Structures are given as C-alpha cells and as structure tokens.
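Friendly challenge for the regulars: who can give me the structure tokens for this chain first? No prize, just bragging rights.
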Amino acid sequence: MKKLIALVFGALALSACATPTPTSVPPTATPVPPTSVPTATRVPPTGTPVPPTATATPVPATATPTRPPSPTVIPGLPAQPRALKFKASDGRELDGTYYPGATNPAPMIVLMHWVRSDQTDWAEVAFWLQNRGLGGATANPGKFPWRDRSWFPAMLTGKSFAVFTFNFRGCTSNGCPGFDQPGWLQDAYAALKTASELDGVDAKKVVVAGASIGADGAVNACAWLNAQKGKGACVGAFALSPGGYLTMPYPAAVLPLQNEQPAKPVWCLAGDGDRESAPTCKSATGAAHRLIEFAGNPHGMDLINPNLKPKGLTVNALQLMLDWLKQSLGL
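First reply, four minutes later:
Bragging rights claimed.
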C-alpha cells in the first residue's frame, strides 16, 4: 500500500515539472494592422517629398549620357539642271532652269541676265555655284570670260548652292530686241518667288544677283519679296551695273532693305566711267550697302573678267560674289 501511494505522488511530481508543448502557449504580441506605416519611413512635414522616380535603378557610373540625336541631312536632289515653266503676275509664261544644290535644303541664289543675252550667259557661273562637278561645255568661253570656268576662284569649302536662272520675256541668246521695263520687273518678281518655293531650297537663305537689267531686277525683287513674305525672305542682292532700268529707282529699292534689322547686304558694282551705272550705285546708302568701282566703263557681265580688279582691291568680281554670299548667308 505504501509503495502504491509513493508511485502516485512520484507521477504527480513529474507531471508538474514537464515542459508544456509550444501550441499550448497563447500569442502575446499585438499584430501590426496592415495599414499602419512604420514611423521610420514617414516624411517630415517640412521635407520635400521624394518623387516616384527617385527609387528607379541608378545609372551606372560608366554609362554614356544620353545626347540629342544629330539633325538628319536629307540628300540633295539630282545634280542635273531641270528646265521648268513659270508665270508672271500678268500670265506671261517664262522659261527657267533649276540647278539643285547638293544638300536639302540648300541656300538659293537667283541669277538675272542682262539685255545682250539670256539665261545661258549665267550657265558656267551657275555650275560653279552649284559645285557638283558639272559644267565646262558652254560655247565660246574664250570670247566671253564668264563662260570660261578655268579662271573662276575656288568654291567655298564644302558649300553647294541651289541656283535658278530664267529668261526675261522676249529675250533670247541673241539679246532682247525690245525694252519691256514694266514686264521685266514682273518677271523678276515671279522668278524670285518661284525660286524661293522650289523643292530642296532653304526659304530662309535666298539671295539674288544680276547684271544690267538683271541688276535692277535683283535689288527690286529682293525688296519686293520681303514686302510680300517678310523681312527674311531675301537676305541679299548683288548688282552688276544697275541703272534704274525697270521703272523703279535704285535707291527706292535699296532703302527698305537697309531699314530692315539686320540690314540686308546690297553690293553695287560699276565702272566709274559708266554714265548710267556709276551714278546709280552712288545714289544709295545704308549700313549694308557697298559701292565697288572699277576703272573705265565695263558694264554688266563685262565686269566678270579675271583681268578686271576693282579700284583699290586685288580680287575679281566672282571673288567679290563669294564674299557677298558669306556676308549675306552668314557663312
């Protein structure tokens, strides 16, 4: 009996000392509600909020910075000259020739002929300005220096101009039998407007040059185009022997071009013995108007001669044309 009682008390003692199973202990920690925000991540009221992109993966130190893409240069149109028709404001149809530049868009220079011939007199000068490897086959280069490219100065490095020539109404390679001053003025306007709108032309870099009647056409049309389209439509004029031949006085055409901001370069070339052109060139002034005199009385295209140098200068007319182009177009 005593042994039985001892065994019962021993079992009770062992039961009291046993370790309870883990599942028998109730959880004592209070769960964090799903919507609560840890205090360590809160932004102080005076702090600047971090934008969502601040957590984006940082760019490695060796990564190349992103640069804007280089402008795309569109290839120029085919180099071969293109004959085309256009109309003056009175409906008169005229013949023109477009010499596309090597870039697209390219600066445009319009060349206006004199009364002794037509647009063919400008052919070699046009190829020279185009600078695309054409030309060299114009007739009679020895008789007419402006048709002989062998002496032309080197073209500006890497430059190619679009060129447009045309025939004033009634004129052929044998000259202009009549003298249609108001008609030729309309032709000059139409030619410059047409050229400025051709495919492949930079409409903000249009200039015009001419000889004799074409010299007046160049200056008159440049002023007219700016009155029609805005002051940056024509940015320069180069006049070989103007004489007020197209009904508009030369100073009246030069004045608005000089009043623009910036003033447009107008260079006037004339022989000091040319009874009409010398006083005409001297009649205009302005910040960007330049008078360039030659000795004697060469007129119009006759000024384009390797042996003729302006008074006080050592360059010829075509080198002067390049200098004028650089000033007008900011090259």
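The two ends are 128 Å apart (CA to CA). The beta strands are 74-75, 82-87, 93-99, 103-104, 106-112, 162-166, 201-211, 237-240, 266-271, 289-294. Your move, everyone else.
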